[in-house]
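# nightly structure sweep
# worker-07 picked up a monomer target from the shared queue
# config: single-sequence mode, recycle default, output format = structure tokens
# input follows
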Amino acid sequence: MAFSIYTASVPVFKQYLDSLGAILRKAEAHAEAAKIDPEVLLQARLFPDMFPLVRQVQIAAHFARDSTARIAGAEAPEYDGRERSFADLHELIAKTLAFIDGLPKSAIEGGADRKTATHPGTPQEKTFTGQSYLLSYGMPQFFFHVATAYAILRHNGVVIGKRDFLGQY
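# output follows
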């Protein structure tokens, strides 16, 4: 069976964005039940030099959009990064899912060999094919930030486990 870049990307991003939304809903319920200001969870970090939960979600959404857009040869929407509440994060996830769903499968399938560069025109520029970008850069970045968001919430007492992380597959 031939490798399908669409199958390796879009359904995976959707699964984990859905699971991220579900764990954020559990975090909201936890904050309400424990009478914790939601801002405490939204700004929680695993370590002082790491980004807080809200930024982890923003970056995960960015890599889901950016990776699929690069493969499809499309322009990824940039959002303002002003998400400050759980409702804002849910809206960001919904917009990201809508963008991914709106990309033609044929454009993604045709993008495995499309050239893309990170930091184009700078000394740190790195050129990839769509497939190598997805597998060695985009998806690892995405999973790092989804897993870190999960870990922040778990560390702060939200009752979630591996099934919550994996979501519906």
